[in-house]
Amino acid sequence: MNIQSFRTMGFPIWVTGHSEIARIASDMLTVGIILNRRELAEQASDKLGKVIAQVKEARKGMPVKKIYWELGYNRSFSKNNQVSSVGVGKNTLEDDLLSTAGGENILPWLDNQSPDSFPTTLEQLRKADPDLILYQNYFRSPEYVPPEEREEWQSLRAIRTSQLYVYPFDEMRYSGLPDNLMALLKAIHPEAYSRITVNN
Predict the structure, then answer these.
(1) Which neighbouring-strand residues pair with 68?
(2) How many whole angstroms separate alpha carbon 101 and alpha carbon 89?
(3) CA-to-CA distance for 176 and 62, rounded, in angstroms?
(4) pTM given for the model
(5) DSSP characters for 60-77?
(6) For 44-93, what is each residue's pLDDT tens digit?
(7) What pLDDT, on a 0 to 100 scale, did the predictor assign at position 116?
(8) Which domains does the chain have, with CATH numbers?
(9) What whole-number distance in Å separates Cα of residue 73 and Cα of residue 84?
(10) What span, in angstroms and rounded, lies between the C-alpha atoms of 30 and 32?
(11) How do 118-120 and 85-87 pair as beta strands?
(12) What is the pLDDT of residues 121-174, one digit of tens each?
């Protein structure tokens, strides 16, 4: 069945997106009302909204840093100067989290490419030369190589300056978004993160 079928049968339809953290904070309340859990939804929405405001205020006036957020890597897929790396593209929740925390996603928006799994070439990485690289470190494949050990990446600014951050969270776990946003702020602007933790 599709949405139109449910409409025909008289079911109310509500559609939400998940690529903007501020909209998620707002939609939490709507979901709570629909599920008759308004009080809990208000608490979750208020908490996320408060953290968003704190993060934006704490990083105000600080430079925006160029970020590469890697989702996966496998050396066996590398050929023809193509880095075997997959990153987060534009118009995703992760992209909005980066922006909110003071980062700029180095990957572009392409109409014919899934933003949730963006194959990234070595040329793209070298041209963008990110200030910081976010990555996972729980791969068990023998083909996985940590960023700092990748020979072809040694010229990147983030590698030369040891600006690498292992993200310890599931980036799509909505219940943990306040903590996830704070973790990103700590990685991108640790001094801004300190302002919040000192004042709380």
Answers:
(1) 133
(2) 16
(3) 25
(4) 0.82
(5) TTPPPEEEEEEEEE-GGG
(6) 899 999 999 999 999 999 999 999 999 887 665 555 555 578 888 888 88
(7) 66
(8) 3-58 (no CATH), 65-199 (3.40.50.1980)
(9) 5
(10) 5
(11) antiparallel
(12) 888 899 999 999 999 766 566 777 889 998 889 999 999 999 999 876 554 555
101 contacts 189 by C-beta, under 8 angstroms: yes
DSSP H helical ranges for 35-173: 38-58, 93-100, 122-128, 157-160
Q: Is 67 left (phi over 0), alpha (psi -120 to 50) or beta?
A: beta
Residue 61's identity, in one-letter code, is G
Identify residue 36 by its one-letter amino acid code: N
- Distance in angstroms (rounded) separating the CA atoms of residues 87 and 119: 6
Distance CA 158, CA 164 (A): 7
Residue 16 banded pLDDT, cuts 50, 70, 90 = low
